[in-house]
Amino acid sequence: MAQDEEGDVRRRVMENEDRGDQIPLGSEVESDDDRLPEQSIEQRTKTIPQGTDQEPSFLHTILSPLPPRWRNWVIRGIFTWLMIGLFCLIIYVGPLALMFTTLLVQVWCFKEIINIGYSVYRMHGLPWFRSLSWWFLITSNYFFYGESLVADYFSVIFSKSDIMRWLITYHRFTSFTMYIVGFVWFVLSLKTRYYIRQFSLFAWTHVALLIVVTQSYLIIINIFHGMIWFIVPVSMIVINDVMAYMFGFFFGKTPLIQLSPKKTWEGFIGGGISTVFMSMMLSYVMCQYPFFVCPVEYSESEDSFRYECDPPAIFRPQEYNLPETLSNFSALLGWKKTLTVYPFVLHSVALSVFSSVIGPFGGFFASGFKRAFKIKDFGDVIPGHGGMMDRFDCQYLMATFVNVYIMTFISETSPQKLLQKVYMLKPEQQLQLYNLLQDSLIARGILQP
């Protein structure tokens, strides 16, 4: 028995010697079997910029007499209003500016998430991984944006070019080819003793793409249904975040969840109630302006995008009968037994409830992610708030719900969208479609011969 143990020890020593021969002296490379200790993870993640406590020098001088808690509150408030002002300016410019901004935010969020992976998994010395991560980001964006936006909404513009028509026709094949190039590139970059870390970052990259690229794509799809479907949900998250912070700051005493020790039940409930009522008021105001409610459509005759339309029924006042109890009470007061309201205002209640109850869980998810890697923020781009991902963690979850809500309860087949597809056909195919449609209408008695 002792001989077996001695032989086992001798075998392990020889294996370690063999491993030492394979790794150059002075190399920082570790084997796949090595574990990253907690101190090492914490030390490496300290290289990630921490933004909540960052203070611009001029504000630090002005606010130095204040206690740290109030100083952070003031800085957070200042940059909150600056972000709201910038958001309003982008809205004023129009939908295309919103789409471009969404794309920029997506790229920045992806960068912040990937940087954490590099820091934790020590990928800086591995070949091609930064390039591969950005290649997969480009490939994903090419697929998603080309699949729907270019083919459905911008098809009339791009179909005027033979090259763009070819790209639209073979879009999926091109996207698949780009992904295969990245896949083969990754396999060829694999190196002995690095496998676990390389596959870890490969998975990390794809999860980041799923969270960031897919959600930002849905945001842009929502914009095309009308800017109100973007502005109101985004505002709901902002209102809920601000009001929950205010209620929690002044009245918070009861902890809400361990993942975010600063979150309180008082802030959660106060923020939720505030979000419902403020969102209804915002929705009521915005429903009155075609610029916000009209779908973004390209006009072939005007050769430009138009934001004027006959508002859909959901954005026109409708009269609803009150429940019997409320109608009797209303009659006693001499009021009408009906209620006239924009249907979208009623839909906004459902959206605001989701943003207040489920939306914060996007933030809790991000908090758990940051705690797992012992970091305070994703970055330091926004003083008082942290990184871009710290501000948009809840927005992405909200965008998915809004898109599902539109497709389930709101969306209808639009003749304008069908025309976009028809414009992509060749002239002889358009004429054939016209004749077939005309024959069908005559046969059904809808059109006189």
UniProtKB/TrEMBL annotation:
Q: Which UniProt keywords apply?
A: Lipid biosynthesis, Lipid metabolism, Membrane, Nucleotidyltransferase, Phospholipid biosynthesis, Phospholipid metabolism, Transferase, Transmembrane, Transmembrane helix
**Keyword Mitochondrion applies:** no
List localization entries: Membrane
PROSITE patterns recorded? CDS (PS01315)
Name the Pfam families for this protein.
CTP_transf_1
Q: Where are the transmembrane segments?
A: 73-93, 170-189, 201-221, 227-252, 264-286, 344-366
Does Transmembrane helix count among this protein's keywords? yes
Segments of this protein annotated with the region Disordered:
1-53
Pathways per UniProt: Lipid metabolism; Phospholipid metabolism; CDP-diacylglycerol biosynthesis; CDP-diacylglycerol from sn-glycerol 3-phosphate: step 3/3
The Gene Ontology biological process annotation of the record reads: CDP-diacylglycerol biosynthetic process
GO molecular function annotations of the record: phosphatidate cytidylyltransferase activity
Question: What do the Gene Ontology cellular component annotations say?
Answer: endoplasmic reticulum membrane
Please name the top-level EC class of this enzyme.
transferase
**Which reaction is this enzyme known to catalyze?**
a 1,2-diacyl-sn-glycero-3-phosphate + CTP + H(+) = a CDP-1,2-diacyl-sn-glycerol + diphosphate
EC number in record? 2.7.7.41
Residue ranges annotated as compositionally biased, kind Basic and acidic residues, are 8-21, 34-45
Membrane topology (UniProt):
Multi-pass membrane protein
- PANTHER family per the record? PHOSPHATIDATE CYTIDYLYLTRANSFERASE (PTHR13773), PHOSPHATIDATE CYTIDYLYLTRANSFERASE, PHOTORECEPTOR-SPECIFIC (PTHR13773:SF8)
State the similarity comment: Belongs to the CDS family.
- Tell me what this protein is called: Phosphatidate cytidylyltransferase
Source organism per entry reads Petrolisthes manimaculis
Q: What is the lineage of its organism?
A: Eukaryota, Metazoa, Ecdysozoa, Arthropoda, Crustacea
